[in-house]
Amino acid sequence: MNLKKIALFVTLFIPFLLNAQATNTSSNDDFKCGISEETAALIKQRLMANRQLFTRQEVVDLVSNRAITYVPVTIHNVAANASGLGKTSEQTILAFLCGLNAIYADQDVQFFMHGPIRDRISNNIYTNAGTSTSRNQMLSYRVSNTLNLIIGASTTNPTASWYDRNGDFVFLLQQMLTSAAKTEAHEIGHFFTLPHTFYGWEGNTVNTTYPSGVLPSCTISGGFFSHTPERVARTGPRANCQTAADGFCDTPADYFSSRLNCPFPAFSDCDTVPLTPDESNIMSYAFDACVTTFSPEQEAAIAMDIATRTWATNTPPTTTDITGLALPVSPLSGAQLGDINNSTVLLEWTPVTGATMYYVEVYGTQFPGLWYPNVNDPIYKGISYTTNPQFNLSTANLVAGSRYAWRIKAINSLSTCASFGSYATFEATTGVTTGLKDLPIEKQMSFSANANPITTSSIAFSVYSAEDVVGSIKIYSIDGREVLSLTKQEISTGDSMIQLPADGLENGLYVAILVTDRGQLQQKIILQR
Question: Which regions form coiled coils (predicted)?
Answer without folding.
Answer: none
